[in-house]
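Fold this complex.
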Amino acid sequence: MSATDRLNTIKGHLSGNYPQGLLAGEVAIITGSGQGIGKSCAEVFAREGAFVVVTDIDASKSDQVAADINAAGGKAISIPGDVLDASFPERLVEETVKAFGKINHIVNNAGFTYDGMLHKISDKQWDVMLAVHNTAPFRIVRAAAKYLRKKDGQNKSIVNVSSTSGLHGNVGQANYATAKAGIVGLTKTIAKEWGMFGVRCNTVAFGWVDTRLTRAKEAGATIEVDGQKVALGIPTGNKSGARPNPFADIPLGRAGTADEVAGSVLTLCTPLTSYVTGHTLEVTGGRGI
Ligand SMILES: NC(=O)c1ccc[n+]([C@@H]2O[C@H](COP(=O)([O-])OP(=O)(O)OC[C@H]3O[C@@H](n4cnc5c(N)ncnc54)[C@H](O)[C@@H]3O)[C@@H](O)[C@H]2O)c1
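Structure:
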């Protein structure tokens, strides 16, 4: 896309004369899009005209999100799978290209927490966090290299999802924090290696977003890892799940919603940020400033 085309796309969008949206005709893979932030990303990308590949380890949720997008007039397919399966990234990329002919955007969002105090974290607990937040994004990006490393003038962007735990550390999350810091290094390296092909790569580091990862652990949400249930959520220390003044350190005074933080991911994929790469965008309601 030339600079003039890009400007016209933005102008048209803002004036309402460009109903197809900011990502019209572009193809986006969004991992972990069966629920939570990934689902919101899939929906907003589709509303902006992208052809969306919904993918999640939970096949029924993945299929449902894609079906709902199509029912609402968007265009999506579901390619469910486990990003921890070494063969899945290649299949995800190839099936995407088979369906839509190209790839413009990859949002490496799939992830979860596997908390414990450092002295009690097992090797398994450690390894799986690095595998899901570092190895899987690396493999997906590597599998897409032959479609992205081309001087074709397309709007191309990778967004890797990190966390304030990765930027600042967090009690009980040595494994998760290490992995979420690692993804920042991967992002910056991709930005440096693939910038010459017009591929931008940025990180979003979320603070507290209201999903099952941040709801009370006592609510009982789990994810299965190698047949073992891993509890998700933040322990409140009481059965009711109530937390005293939980947003005291957030200037906006509340958690973010999945829909509003998906907007930050979208922004980093649109031509509005065509000169932004290697950046880490903190989406935190001001927490930690
Ligand atoms: N919620 C927050 O406050 C918060 C804060 C910082 C970072 N994050 C990050 O945002 C991302 C999305 O989290 P969320 O809060 O929407 O959680 P979520 O649990 O609502 O959604 C995550 C999705 O990823 C999928 N997933 C997990 N492991 C997978 C695997 N191996 N293969 C395929 N799919 C898999 C899950 O099935 C789920 O649908 C994660 O990377 C998380 O670490 C979230």
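The longest helix spans residues 123-143.
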